[in-house]
Design a protein that fits this description.
Blueprint (H helix, E strand, L loop, with lengths): L8 H4 L5 H23 L5 H19 L12 H23 L1 H6 L6 H21 L2 H15 L15 H8 L9 H22 L2 H13 L5 H17 L2 H19 L3 H15 L9 H9 L3 H29 L13 H23 L4 H25 L17 H43 L1 H13 L3 H16 L4 H19 L4 H12 L10 H10 L3 H11 L2 H11 L2 H4 L3 H23 L8 H12 L6 H20 L6 H4 L5
Helix pairs in contact: 2-3, 2-9, 2-17, 2-18, 3-4, 3-6, 3-9, 3-18, 4-6, 6-7, 6-8, 6-18, 7-18, 9-14, 9-17, 9-18, 10-11, 10-16, 11-12, 11-13, 11-15, 12-13, 12-23, 13-15, 13-23, 13-24, 14-15, 15-25, 15-27, 16-17, 18-21, 19-20, 19-21, 20-21, 21-22, 22-25, 23-24, 27-28, 27-29, 28-29
Length: 667
């Protein structure tokens, strides 16, 4: 997006009739301004922030996903009436709660008929908004939990409870702080949206293209260069985009065709992009909504969550990087000719200001600003830096990085200001659109969490988990992984994490003795598996669409490349220093040992080291990798030395005239 005329990417891509599109844009701007106000100027009360945020989100959802399709001529009066009623219901539920908050608090437990009616309206409109935006499974699961609260007396065994009335459930889900307006929605309203807006500002100011070009400039000439660039670019953009799927369809549009061009099969290209984009969700500083939710649930500072996530995330991205390198070596895939790659110097000159925005973000974190204020400062920084760079390019035509439109000397000041305003409007639209699934998923997760607290289901799940695992931590983690996959079939990653941590978190911490942060990191990592694990693998399905590949084969490839999602949490359990820190020689040594083990595992799975591996070689490398999962430093160090020695021996077995070409193939 380099010109004013091409800047309206947000409104143009809505696909709505004029009035609906205009209303969406106005409300998206209002939502962005509201979020900037409460983040950087003056926070409001809990219910006021969350109710206003959710009301606008729901109205935007009903505008973007109307009944009976988007085309005006095909929509019946009944469909229009339904949408108007749902929009009115969303606004009514929010206004009723906020305008009558003091009276509602005073009659706590003795709810009036109007209280109950407003609560029912709030629940129904939320479930319908989430169904349209995220899909029917999440609303269906929430409805099943509500049904569970009603049907308690008729259920068998451990699931049985006394049952709850509509009024009691409304008090829990709508009129209290443990349901819809609970922690998940609070995190979405207070923290997540402002960082999604930051990501949208990066997008409309061409940061995405900058990160992709920079990644290609660094890795493009290496073996399998486009795949390695995809890993780096997806990590950079995925960490701030808030969605693995969104990252797949944006960066994947550039990276997947180039991967196919140098020789990766379509399903391999899609799988690599899905695995790399999923890694963006566990990579600081943003980590989707995960870091903010973990900070709320653990009570730890956000900066502590970010610090704990750094080494595990590097290990994950390193594992994906090793996988794509080994595939390139095995198939002798070359990089892209230098003439076809962007220049590193010119790319950096064009987009260095985007890196400054990330520096501002990290400095604000280190200065212990509140998370909301950090997001506010990051948004202001990227807007100011983009405007300053545009002024520089406008006043100095021909400078490296100046776009064609910005370098025209006679371009009017009015046109330049207009272009900037259009970009800000676009950022509001893109931010609001990207926030819809996150905020709605968090609100629906609040329903599930509220029912879990109301019925005591969490304690029952913990008892069941203990009983099935017989006190064995590894077996308990297997059950947790299976539960995350099942939940992932119906819930987005954020909601899956919330539900799992409420159900399984207490047993991991209280009964198995895991540190609080390790337990939450485990659950968060395992909740990511629905992006890449068949039969769900939503990110892989999105990548398959871009790559023109078979969805299930792409999912299997993504599952292979994303094996770090399953192994690295186990390493965190065995070696908590990877997340919790400690003496730097210990942390560095265990991180190195872990990376060597993960690389050996990838080589054994792929059947390729410096040369093709025999069955015996695979077994030996797998055994070397397994040593890292023992708490003994001696065993882990022995395995690391064995893998290093085996790799050196494999390299020396190369034909002398092939060693030069194989040098860059060594792990």
């Amino acid at each position: 997006m380099t010109s004013a005329g091409g800047a309206s990417i947000g409104r143009r891509n809505l696909g709505l009739p004029g009035f609906s599109a205009g209303t969406f844009v106005v409300l998206a701007i209002a939502l962005s301004l509201f979020q900037l106000y409460i983040s950087g100027i003056r926070p409001l009360g809990l219910f006021y922030e969350r109710a206003f945020h959710l009301a606008l989100i729901q109205v935007l959802a009903f505008l973007l996903f109307p009944s009976k399709g988007r085309s005006l001529p095909t929509r019946s009066r009944m469909a229009w009436a339904l949408d108007v009623a749902l929009i009115a219901g969303s606004i009514f539920a929010a206004l009723y709660l906020t305008l009558n908050l003091d009276a509602i608090v005073n009659r706590a437990g003795a709810w009036s008929a109007t209280d109950v009616f407003a609560g029912v309206v709030a629940i129904v409109t939320l479930l319908e908004a989430s169904r349209r935006t995220v899909g029917w499974p999440i609303s269906f699961i929430a409805a099943c939990f509500i049904g569970y609260a009603y049907a308690g007396p008729a259920l068998p065994g451990v699931l049985r409870h006394g049952g709850y009335s509509t009024g009691r459930m409304v008090g829990q889900l709508y009129l209290g702080q443990e349901g819809i307006y609970g922690i998940p929605l609070g995190v979405a309203a207070s923290f997540v949206f402002i960082f999604i807006l930051f990501g949208a500002l990066l997008e409309v100011t061409d940061a995405g293209q900058f990160f992709i070009d920079l990644a290609y400039a660094v890795t493009g000439r290496q073996r399998g260069g486009p795949a390695k660039a995809a890993v780096l670019a997806s990590a950079a953009m995925g960490s701030v985009s808030g969605s693995a799927i969104a990252n797949v369809v944006t960066s994947g549009a550039f990276t997947i065709p180039l991967m196919k061009k140098v020789g990766y099969r379509a399903e391999e290209a899609g799988g690599i992009e899905a695995a790399a984009s999923t890694g963006g969700q566990i990579l600081p500083p943003i980590m989707g909504a995960g870091a903010f939710l973990m900070a709320e649930y653990t009570g730890l500072p956000y900066l502590e969550i970010v610090k704990a996530a750094v080494i595990p995330a590097i290990l994950y991205m390193g594992t994906v990087f090793v996988f794509v390198h080994l595939v390139a070596v095995r198939r002798d895939l070359r990089g892209i000719p230098a003439a076809e790659l962007p220049s590193f110097g010119r790319t950096l000159a064009k987009g260095w200001h985007f890196l400054l925005a990330l520096v501002v973000l990290m400095v604000a974190l280190l200065m212990d600003f509140s998370v909301a204020r950090v997001g506010f400062l990051a948004c202001v920084a990227i807007a100011v830096l983009a405007a300053s760079r545009s002024v520089w390019d406008r006043s100095t035509p021909g400078k490296p990085g100046a776009s064609q439109s910005d370098s025209v000397p006679h371009r009017s000041l009015v046109g330049w200001i207009g272009s900037g305003i259009v970009r800000l409007v676009d950022a509001s639209v893109v931010g609001a659109r990207n926030a819809l699934p996150v905020s709605l998923a968090c609100a629906v997760a609040g329903i599930i969490v509220g029912i879990v607290g109301l019925t005591g289901l969490g304690l029952k799940f913990s008892a069941l988990m203990l009983s099935l695992s017989q006190g064995n931590l590894l077996l308990a983690l297997v059950f947790l992984l299976l539960a995350s996959l099942v939940l992932g079939m119906g819930l987005p990653v954020t909601a899956s994490y919330v539900v799992l941590v409420v159900l399984a978190g207490p047993v991991l911490i209280n009964d198995f003795g895991l540190p609080v942060l390790i337990a939450h990191m485990l659950v968060f990592w395992y909740s990511q598996d629905s992006n890449v694990t068949p039969p769900v693998c939503l990110a892989a399905y999105a990548a398959a669409g871009v790559a023109g590949a078979d969805p299930m084969r792409t999912g299997l490839q993504a599952w292979k490349y994303a094996k770090g999602l399953y192994l690295i949490p186990l390493l965190m359990v065995v070696h908590p220093e990877l997340a919790l820190g400690g003496a730097w020689p210990v942390v560095l040594g265990k991180a190195t040992m872990s990376m060597v083990a993960l690389a050996a595992f990838a080589a054994a799975l792929e059947g390729q080291l410096v040369r093709r591996l025999t069955a015996v070689g695979r077994i030996l490398l797998m055994a070397g990798a397994a040593t890292a999962f023992f708490p003994s430093v001696l065993i882990g160090t022995s395995g690391t030395l064995f893998v290093a020695g085996y790799t050196l021996w494999d390299f020396r077995r190369q034909e002398p005239n092939n060693r030069g070409g194989a040098a860059d193939a060594t792990i």
